[in-house]
Design brief:
This protein is of the alpha/beta class. It has helices at 50-70, 92-103, 119-125, 146-165, 182-193, 205-215, 267-274, 282-285, 288-296, 304-328, 332-351, and strands at residues 2-5, 13-19, 24-32, 38-39, 42-45, 76-83, 109-110, 174-178, 197-201, 218-219, 229-235, 251-255, 278-279. The chain contains 11 helices and 13 strands. The radius of gyration is 20 Å and the shape is globular. Bound molecules: nicotinamide-adenine-dinucleotide.
């Protein structure tokens, strides 16, 4: 197995692995371990080349540092990319080699699920390394993070309602949900139980019809959902939906959902603020998954009560972000980034 360091200014440790015997080609990026071991999933994707894979792994690893710091977890940020088609290239020998690659970081990088990677793949990695999270609940691990992410988003939406309407109660509030997959459907269930009026959409028609029947929601088309007149728009599908075209057409007071990277560019956060639309920074409101995983890394292992308390803490983090944004007249995305930079600077001071 050939492991080579790659140059990436601003990152602690980035390595490429080429394993001739199995054919594995992968990169692991450790962005920061200032606050703790670098946690981040393994993405399996057929990149067009190593440059594209490197760009992606660096962006994702830095994003994990920010997400963990904002959730106030003793974790840093990292990510792995396995270059290959998730349907054809995840052979047992490559996954075992990937496990050895993860192990070569000696615990400074801890892996988990991501796009193209399933629990059964992680179970193979776990034969070669202890530094794997998100295995099944039966094995004492934290399991599927979707339900925790959904509950965290629900708490976050309540904090947003409080900020805009002076009450966190979703009763009678209108919410438009884009994407009712693992997280979106969970958000819908919590909101329906609390008496919110829901409109939803998904490109999978049978799925959205099933969830809508279950929670008593109205269904609209994927083209129309983000322009619904509503109190809250909850993007729970794709990133990059908040752009120059969409923002002037939004008819909501709040944007709060689980999708990663909702702002196409940071300046789109400013555009939302100009329109007086409250934006819950995605990496603040969708941190339920990482909180769930962080629990299993604690001494004593996974602890449901601890997770529930920390999920409620997402609302407190958002309140802090909204207060800073209000007082300093800055976008909520800028306020969130500032909190992260302060926590990282304090972590650096503590370790130096
Ligand atoms: P998922 O694949 O289970 O669900 C996504 C849903 O969105 C699918 O049902 C899909 O059909 C639908 N969809 C795709 N394009 C759409 C469109 N144009 N319009 C309407 N619906 C569309 O994924 P998930 O785990 O629920 O995650 C959703 C988002 O949240 C992703 O951006 C993910 O990165 C992010 N996220 C998930 C977690 C987690 O714990 N699962 C944690 C943090 C962030």
């Amino acid at each position: 197995m050939d492991i080579t360091p790659l140059r990436a200014p601003g990152y602690e440790d980035v390595r490429r692995c080429r394993d001739q015997a199995s054919g594995l080609h992968a990169i692991i990026a450790v962005h920061s371990t200032v606050l703790g071991p670098a946690l981040g999933g393994m993405r399996v994707h057929l990149y067009r080349g190593e440059d594209e894979a490197l760009t992606d792994v660096l962006r994702l690893a830095a994003g994990m540092t920010f997400k963990a710091a904002l959730a106030d977890l003793p974790l840093g940020g990292g990510k792995a990319v396995f270059i290959g088609d998730p349907k054809r290239h995840k052979t047992e020998s490559r996954l075992l080699a990937m496990g050895r690659f993860v192990e070569s970081f000696g615990g400074r990088y801890v892996t988990a699920e991501d796009v193209g990677c399933e629990v059964r793949d992680l179970e193979i990695l776990a034969k070669e390394t202890r530094h794997v999270t998100g295995l099944s609940r039966e094995s004492g691990s934290s399991g599927n993070p979707g339900p925790a992410t959904a509950l965290g988003v629900y708490h976050g939406i309540r904090a947003c309602l409080d900020e805009v309407f002076g009450s966190p109660d979703p009763l009678g509030r209108s919410v438009a949900i884009q994407g009712v997959g693992s997280v979106g459907a969970g958000v819908a269930r919590h909101l329906a139980q609390a008496g919110a009026r829901l409109t939803m959409s998904d490109i999978e028609v049978s799925k959205v019809e099933r969830v809508a029947r279950e929670v008593g929601a109205r269904v609209t088309s994927p083209e129309e959902i983000i322009y619904e007149q509503c109190d809250v728009l909850a993007p729970c599908a794709l990133g990059g939906i908040l752009d120059d075209h969409a923002i002037p057409r939004l008819r909501c007071r709040i944007v709060a959902g689980c999708a990663n990277n909702q702002l196409l560019e940071p300046r789109h956060g400013d555009l939302l603020a100009k329109r007086d639309i409250l934006y819950a920074p995605d990496y603040a409101i969708n941190s339920g998954g990482i909180i769930n995983i962080a629990s299993e890394l604690r001494p004593g292992g996974f602890d449901e009560k601890w997770v529930q308390a920390r999920l409620q803490g997402i609302a407190d983090t958002l309140r802090q972000i909204f207060r800073i944004a209000r007082e300093e007249r800055i976008g909520t995305h800028v306020a969130a980034d500032r909190i992260v930079r302060e926590r990282l600077a304090a972590g650096k001071r503590a370790t130096s």
